[in-house]
Amino acid sequence: MVLDFAINFQGLIIWSIACGLVNSSAYLAYYKALEIGPVSIVSSAVSGWLGVCVLISVIFFGESTTLAQVGCMVLILAGIILLSQTTNKGEIIGSALGWSILAMVILGWVLAALPQLSDSAGIFLPVFILKFFGGIGALVILRTTKIPITLPHGRSIWLIIVLVGSIDSAGFIFFAMGVIFLPVVVVAPIVAAHPMATVILAYMIFRERLRTIQWVGVMVTLSAVITLSALYG
Question: What are the residue ranges spanned by the domains of the chain?
Answer without folding.
Answer: 9-230
